[in-house]
Amino acid sequence: MLTTKTAEHIQEQKATSPNTLRVGVIGYGYWGPNLARNISEVNGAELIQVVDQDPKRQTLAKKRFPHIQTASGIESLIHNSKIDAVFITTPISTHYEIAKAALEAGKHVLVAKPLAASSKEADELVRLADKHKRVLMVDHTFIYTRAVQKIKEIVKRGELGDIYYFDSVRVNLGLFQQDLNVVWDLAPHDLSILMYVLEKEPLSLIATGARHSHSQIENMAYISMELARTIMAHLHVNWLAPVKVRLTMICGRKKMLIYDDLEADEKIKVYDRGIEVSKNNKEGLYKTLIEYRTGDMYAPNIEKVEALKLECEHFVECVQEGRRPITDGHTSLKVVRIL
């Protein structure tokens, strides 16, 4: 871990570069500290300011990053000419207004998932980013994990063969949200992974949810989607489960893959298993024969590196090089439309 003296020295070195991306973070609650820590350690970036309504959270930020400014209102950050980019980690109901103000002020923006609370809001943010030629990126962190990158590589090179189905389970006990249901809270992870890995969007979907508290917010749901005539997808999200499960299964004609994000070492397992279908015309009677194939399993080596660090590096590179992020506004708009 960096000492305060070492961290200050790094920030002084960064400040001397004219190409350094100067960043402000809005929201220092659950996820904000992680983003602030990672962006402060990325070469080519400098954390300038943290905004949070809670004075205690401001104190914590100042203690961790003594060189930064803190404030309770976003205006001082949005209109700060020394800040080039804004990271937004506030409740979803505030994403649109804050991101809109930042884009109109000429800032690059990274927003916690999902991008906005409606397709209309998300679409307007995408248009604003394009109009002002600013980078608009959404924090779909799982896309930047080495595991999901490896899965995409396996699928893209055709190792699994034609894809039959995508099935995921993302359940745990809590955390019950106050301003969004379990679909809006958990499903963005799996929807972003699905579309990134398979490079397909749903043609149709059916979602069924239920609530088991006094709240009007659903705490569990099942989502079934048709991606193509022969590809089905199913997502199970739940805040009311006895254990935490983060499991994805992708079945192809040649092989099958299981991705368990909670596994420490073997997060991905590829199984040489499946069926072979053939026709038999013995004695003039056509019969469909199904043979089961059971082969080896292997677990590819996955480099252990924090996905959020890779995401922050990607954001900085996209701003500095004028490139389009993997999880840009256009991609994230598709997720919001599905939600």
List keywords for this structure.
single chain, 339 residues, alpha/beta, six-stranded parallel sheet, 10 helices, 14 strands, disordered N terminus
Model description:
The chain contains ten helices and 14 strands. By secondary structure, it is an alpha/beta fold. The strands form two sheets. It has an eight-stranded mixed sheet. A six-stranded parallel sheet has the order 3-2-1-4-5-6, sandwiched between helices. β9 and β10 form a beta hairpin. α5 runs parallel beside α6, α6 packs antiparallel against α10 (329-338) and α7 packs across α8. The longest helix has 17 residues, at 182-198.
Give a quick precis of the structure:
By secondary structure, the protein is an alpha/beta fold. Strands 8-9-10-7-11-12-13-14 form an eight-stranded mixed sheet. A six-stranded parallel sheet has the order 3-2-1-4-5-6, with helices on both faces.
Amino-to-carboxy terminus distance: 39 Å
What series of H and E elements makes up the topology? HEHEHEHEHEHEHEHEEEEEEEHH
If helices are DSSP runs of H or I spanning 4 or more residues, what is the number of helices? 10
Mean pLDDT: 91
**Poorly predicted sequence stretches spanning 5 or more consecutive residues:** 1-16
